[in-house]
Amino acid sequence: MKRLTMPSAAIAMVSFASSTWARDYYELVAEGYRWAIVNGPYACTTESGVQRITGHRTDAIELQMVEGLEAYYLIPGSIAHVVRSDPATGMSEIRLVGIATPLWTYSRFLSKRPIQNIYGVIETPENSGLIANENLGLIPIPGEAPDKRAVKGGTEASMHSSRVATIGILKGENP
């Protein structure tokens, strides 16, 4: 009898925990949050930029657009907030952490299902720095201008690590 009770309790606890997590992610999706599923310079300042980088992508075009701040890298698992979607073109206007201007990307490059980032963490608006968590407060990021802020706690280190990893990827280094 005890053997049946323990597995049943464990299954009930896991089911409850997973449904709680799933509900939280469904709420984020309902608020317009998505996770990147591609790795590359597929977020651009204009819709035509997205068509250009995906249509006839060459190293020269990619370099020109990234250096000209017309294209930004999407990294799998990074969270984005969809500002609006254009079903006619299949594109979405999004906001990413650390980029002040809204960007465009194909909606198919974004998932409604949570995706783990390169550190094995599922990003949320609070832990990515996309929005501030009032319960945690704000502190300056070391080495950056005082007006740039991050959330207190483990997030500051993870945001710094994400920035370092992104810079390394842009320079062609392996994380």
Give structural notes.
Helix content is 38%, strand content 22%. The strands form 3 sheets. The protein has a 5-stranded antiparallel beta sheet with strand order 6-5-4-1-7. Strands 2-3 form a two-stranded antiparallel sheet. A two-stranded antiparallel sheet has the order 8-9. It has 5 helices and 9 strands, in the order αββααβββββαββα. The chain is of the alpha+beta class. The protein starts with a helix and ends in a 5-residue tail after the last helix. It is globular, with a radius of gyration of 19 Å. The protein has one domain. About 26% of the residues have low confidence.
Q: Segments where pLDDT lies below 50 for 5+ residues?
A: 9-20, 134-166
Which structural category fits the helices and strands? alpha+beta
Principal-axis shape equals: globular
Order of helices and strands: HEEHHEEEEEHEEH
Number of helices: 5
Mean pLDDT: 75
Number of domains: 1
The largest sheet has its strands arranged as: 6-5-4-1-7
**Total number of strands:** 9
Give helix % range: 25-40%
Computed Rg: 19 Å
Largest beta sheet, briefly?
Answer: 5 strands, antiparallel
Q: Strand share of the residues?
A: 15-25%
Q: Termini separation (Å)?
A: 50 Å
Keywords:
5 helices, alpha+beta, two-stranded antiparallel sheet, 22% strand, 175 residues, 9 strands, single chain
Quickly describe the structure:
With 175 residues, the protein is an alpha+beta fold. The chain is built from 5 helices and 9 strands; from the N terminus they run αββααβββββαββα.
